[in-house]
Amino acid sequence: MGIAMLFEHKNEELFTLNRADTEQPLSSYAMFSFELDGAHWPSVEHYYQAMKFEDEAHRNKIRECASAAEAAKLGKSRRAKRRKDWKKTSTVVMTRGTYIKCKTHPEIAEQLLSTGELRIAELSGYDYFWGSGRDMRGKNNFGKVLMAVRDKLKTEA
Ligand SMILES: Nc1nc(O)c(N)c(N[C@@H]2O[C@H](COP(=O)(O)O)[C@@H](O)[C@H]2O)n1
């Protein structure tokens, strides 16, 4: 993934990525650790998935997962009860984790800033909430999270 011309009819250049790409430092699954809310998180995805729950023991179980994919699997399982306000807070949690990762790893902040003013799109064939969806009509909330963090980093530069 990288810079693409997906809307050639609109002549719009995009920076594209997939949230689950562990090789892409800007993705939430990339293993770049940080401290937040009094704990050490191996990736943004670990933090994001754990924050779905109020139960401390379940959060810790997710935090200790060896990979982001494992953390996501545990976070998506319906065995533990999700916090009631999750729908309202999920993008805020993703934004906080992504911002703190960038502050902890300045090279990632640099990479994000180097996308300039390009629109960032999370390419996903199935996810219409975080990504583009199959037809590019998705909400692209992960792309929006990255653009919001980029805006904040710009004001601090
Ligand atoms: N509608 C909606 N609101 C939210 O706040 C969400 N987090 C999602 N997520 C959707 O559900 C799938 C699994 O959730 P997470 O990736 O663990 O958030 C995800 O693929 C989204 O489609 N949906």
UniProtKB/TrEMBL annotation:
InterPro entries documented for this protein: NADAR, YbiA-like_sf
Gene3D superfamilies documented for this protein: YbiA-like
Transmembrane segments: none
CDD domains to which the protein is assigned, alphabetical: NADAR
SUPFAM superfamilies given in the database record: YbiA-like
Catalyses which reaction(s): 5-amino-6-(5-phospho-D-ribosylamino)uracil + H2O = 5,6-diaminouracil + D-ribose 5-phosphate; 2,5-diamino-6-hydroxy-4-(5-phosphoribosylamino)-pyrimidine + H2O = 2,5,6-triamino-4-hydroxypyrimidine + D-ribose 5-phosphate
Residues of the NADAR domain: 22-154
Pfam families to which the protein is assigned, alphabetical: NADAR
Stated name of the protein: NADAR family protein
Organism: Thalassolituus maritimus
